[in-house]
Amino acid sequence: MRRIGVAAACAAFALLASACAPETSSSGTANAPSAGEKVSLSVWSKFSGRELGVLQKVLDGFQAKHPNITVKNQGSQDDDKVAQAIRGGNPPDVAISFSTDNIGQFCSGGAWQDLKAYIARDKVDLNQLPAATRAYTEFKGTRCAMPLLADVYGLYYNKAMFAKAGISEPPKTMSELFEAAKKLTVRNPDGSIKVAGFVPTIGFYANHVQMWAASWGAQWAGQDGKSTLGTDPQWQAMLEWAKKFTDFYGRDKLAKFTAGLGQEYSPDHAFEKGQIAMAMDGEFRTAFIEAEAPKLDYATAPFPVADNKPDLYGGGYTTGTIIGIPKGAKNAGAGWELVKYLSTDPAALQELAHGLKNVPSTVPALQDPVLQKDVHFKTFLDIFANPNLATNPASANGGAYLKSAEDFAISYQSGGVPDLKAGLAKTGTQIDADAQLGS
């Protein structure tokens, strides 16, 4: 009855965290329910169908350990729906988001609660999380989320095509990638592309600037927080490489070729169909290949790195699913118990990883013998454990800066930018201006 009364009183002040704060202990954390206190805990996520069932099995494990807590698992709920529920004063107790780009808004605006006091109280060791995952679950000192599985990106390559072209090992540098792609490319008699060694088109499948930037060591911002697009030479080198790659194929021929390829998340995916010999992709592609192209002779490796950054090899780009407690959650204490369980318990993470084919997001959970046994998947476990694992920084205005950078990169690659250096500087200035407006 007390919780119902508080929820009703807070309906008109849903965005005022102090008005809707649950009962807390002296440490500033919400109290976990006592063993005899029955609690119903709501969990919202974007999972659906089979994947929602995978999550449910892990939630059943939590309920077995906490028989007084009943978990209601609701799928097909995206960030917008969670935000609407917060504004309406009826948020879920726990929210799972597929977008790390929103972490700046979640933390800075208070939409998701700060977990720092819980972590300190329960002595949760954050060192079990790689630095990159720690980075995409906090913003300017506020940790309002924990990682819940990770997506890790590397190189997929067709072993049969490599053997036919006389290539014995995967490329490790961008120059090697370019040279291998030239050998692997097959053209039709009219010069059009039949098989592409590698598609360099920005925006095609997983070819996004933030994913490439990790392999080039390109920095997004300096210590002053200002964009370094115009000052870090790695950005210019990366885009010049992409443009040279495009020119090798011919812009029009490459555009015609990619227009005829299957969608990224369909059985007609070009790598699965043997239409491209190499591709950047996440660990989840192994599950797609197993289901859709089980006879494909392929291997995985870390993605190549810039020629002048050889020490980065072995690392890569990561992002992932995140979990937190929305503002106004009625059972924040019980919610934290579930957040802690799903994000730090090795068995829970490994069970999720088995079912969803994602990388478990703590270092101890990587030692799962089932995951380690899959040679294709093990590549991504190794990349995740590598100290050069990288991600893009959180921002108060979400992923707006990523869109600005990618829009510019696409324009340059298509021949629409006469002065690359000046264009990068202008884009960086615009990113800074947008950040001021969004902060």
From TrEMBL:
Keyword NAD carried by entry: no
InterPro entries: SBP
Signal peptide: 1-21
One Pfam family, short name: SBP_bac_1
Domain of life of the organism encoding this protein: Bacteria
Key words, A-Z: Signal, Transport
Presence of the UniProt keyword RNA-binding in the record: no
Annotated family: Belongs to the bacterial solute-binding protein 1 family.
Protein name per the record: ABC transporter substrate-binding protein
Organism of derivation: Nonomuraea guangzhouensis
